[in-house]
Amino acid sequence: MYFTDDSLFPELMKPTIITAAPYGPEWLPGDVEDLPLSFEQQVQAAVDCYNAGATMLHFHVRDPKTGEGSSNFDHYNELLGMVRKAVPKMIIQVGGSISFAPHTEGAKAKWLDYDTRHMLTELDPKPDFVTVTTGSTLWDITQAFVPGDADGTHLADPKVAAAWSGMVVDSLPSFYIEHLKRLRKNGIQPYFVPGHVHQLEIIERLIRSGVYMGPLNLALCGYGGGTMGRNPFDWMEMLRRTPHGASSVTFWSSMRGNIAIQTMATVLGVNVRVGNEDNIWDIDKKRWSTVKQVEWAVKQSEQFGRKVATADEAREMMKVGVWYDSAEETLFNLGLPPNRKEGHKGFLAYETDGRLPQATGVVTKPTSIL
To answer: In sequence order, what E strands does the chain have?
Structure first.
C-alpha cells in the first residue's frame, strides 16, 4: 500500500469493515460465556454481531451434540442457510481450515485432507468467501500467549496447549491451485490469509500467472509461532508489500495483543477483526464477549473519525461477486506493475505516450506559493 501526505486523515479513509469471529473453534463449552452451542445460538451470535456493527462474519460450525467444531458438511449447509436467512446482507467468510481441534491428551491439531477441504467450494447456499492459505507453515497460536491468556479454559492444560503448539497449516501448491480453480467454478471468492511476507509473495505469483483473476481481499495474520508476531515493523512491511489496489485488507492477531493491532489497523485505514476466536480479554484483563468487542471496534473507529461500513458499503468495497478475465486485467486493477514482455529490460511500468499533460490555461507564478 502507498501512503501519501493525506492518507492518515480519517475523513479520506474508506469506512471500516468490521469482521466478527464469534465461534472460537479452539474453545470448549465452559471456556467462554458467549460460546454459541446450538444452531439457534450460533445464528443468534451472527445476528447480535451484525446489529452491533460487524458486516462480515468469520464462519465456523459447532456440533450441538458434542460442543466441538464440526466437519460435517450437512451441518455447514444447514447453518449457512439459517444465517443467510437471519442476516441476508452480512458477508459470510467461511474459515477454510476445517481442523480437528485437540481437546484431549495426545490429540493433534490436524487439518483435514485436501479432498475434504475442497468440499467447501460446493457449499449450498454459497458463502461469499472461503479463506485460502498459500504455503505450509507452523501456526502455533499458543507461542505468543503470555501468562494468564488461557486462564479458565481447557487450553490452560499444558498437554492441550502442547497439542495446539504443533498445528501446521498444510497448504501445498497441489492444494491451493486446485482450490482456487474450484472456488471460481462455483462462484465463491477466495479470502487470502498470509501469515508472513513470503506467503504474500506466493499470492502475487498466482496473480501474475493467471491462476487467480479477481479482486484481492486478504487478512495479514500475526499470531506468532510461524506467522508474524506483534512487531509493528513486520506489520508495516506486510502492509507496504500488499498490492495498492487490494479491495480490503484486515489485520488478524490474538489475545490482548489484538487490541493494539486493531487500533493500529484503524489508524492506518485498513480493517479490523474481533471476537472470541482471537481474544477473550479486554485491556483490563477481564472477560470480553464478541459483541462487546464489536461495539469497541465501532466506537474506536468513530472516535478516530472513520465511518463504520454498512453491509452494502462493505460489499461494494470488497467487490463481492466480481471476477476478472486475465492476469493483465487483474494486475492493472490491483495497482501492480504489468508482467514483463519479451525483450523488455529494466523496471516494469505501464506504457504512456510520453507527452506532458496539457496546460489548463490558468495563469500562475511559482513564487506565489513561497
So the answer is: 18-20, 56-59, 91-94, 99-100, 110-111, 129-132, 137-138, 168-169, 189-192, 217-221, 248-252, 271-274
Run of H or E residues at 301: helix 290-304
Q: Grid coordinates representing 37?
A: 452451542
What's the average pLDDT block by block, 10 residues per block, for the chain (370 residues)? 96 98 94 96 98 98 91 93 98 82 58 84 96 95 95 94 90 96 97 97 98 98 96 97 97 98 98 98 97 98 98 98 97 95 86 73 56
Q: What angle do CA 97, 98, 102 make, to 5 degrees?
A: 100
SS percent in the chain: helix, strand, coil, step 5: 35, 15, 50
| SS3 of residue 153 by DSSP | coil
d(CA 263, CA 20): 15
pLDDT reported for residue 27: 94
Give the three-class secondary structure for 124: coil
C-alpha cell at 138: 507452523
Question: What does the pLDDT read at residue 353?
Answer: 77
Rg from Cα positions in the chain: 22
Per-residue CA distances from 8 to 5, 106, 132, 254, 266 (Å): 8, 49, 30, 25, 10
Residue 330 contacts residue 324 (beta carbons within 8 Å):
yes
Looking at residue 104, its pLDDT comes to 57
pLDDT of residue 186: 97
Determine the pLDDT at residue 99: 57
| Residue pair 320/91 in contact by the 8 Å Cβ criterion | yes
CA angle 121, 122, 123 (to 5 degrees): 100
Asked if residue 247 lies in contact with residue 218, where contact means CB atoms within 8 angstroms, the answer is no
- Single-letter amino acid code for the residue at 270: V
The pTM assigned to this predicted structure is 0.92
Whole-angstrom Cα distance, residue 258 to residue 274? Answer: 8
Could you give the 3-state DSSP secondary structure of residue 7?
coil
pLDDT at 122: 94
